[in-house]
Design goal:
This protein is an all-beta fold. It has a single domain, classed as Jelly Rolls (Sandwich), CATH 2.60.120. Helices cover about 0% and strands about 35% of the residues. The strands form two sheets. A four-stranded antiparallel beta sheet has the order 1-8-3-6, with no helix packed on it. A four-stranded antiparallel beta sheet has the order 2-7-4-5, with no helix packed on it. It is elongated, with a radius of gyration of 18 Å. It starts with about 25 loop residues before the first strand and ends with a strand.
């Protein structure tokens, strides 16, 4: 007997996900002023940012300057994972709580 409210689709399940292609990994050194860290890319389907510094890094999307501790902010070792369902294709800016903060970047198309 099937549970009420649960449908049995069997082998007819279709995934809307598509395989992503990883571009060359890169990094950015962030200072205490808003700086571009990723150019606009209309083919982008996702991106992962990893704060590999011991400082805080905040982001600004599109033409917005990054504002420290506002919006998306990564603590040390923090990760921002833009998946293929919640990504942006515009440029990304960043600012850090101290100069020389390193940000690891992996973009997907």
């Amino acid at each position: 007997m099937q549970n009420p409210g649960v449908s049995d689709f069997g082998s007819n399940i279709v995934s809307t996900k598509t395989p992503l292609i990883g571009l060359t990994p890169t990094f950015a050194v962030i200072g205490t002023s808003s700086t571009p860290v990723l150019s606009a890319n209309s083919a982008r389907k996702g991106c992962v940012f990893v704060n590999v510094s011991s400082n805080y890094i905040s982001f600004g999307i599109a033409s917005n300057n990054a504002v420290l501790y506002s919006g998306i902010t990564l603590a040390p070792n923090g990760v921002w994972d833009m998946s293929e369902y919640d990504y942006v294709t515009s440029a990304i800016n960043a600012i850090a709580s101290a100069s020389g903060s390193q940000l690891s970047i992996q973009e997907f198309q």
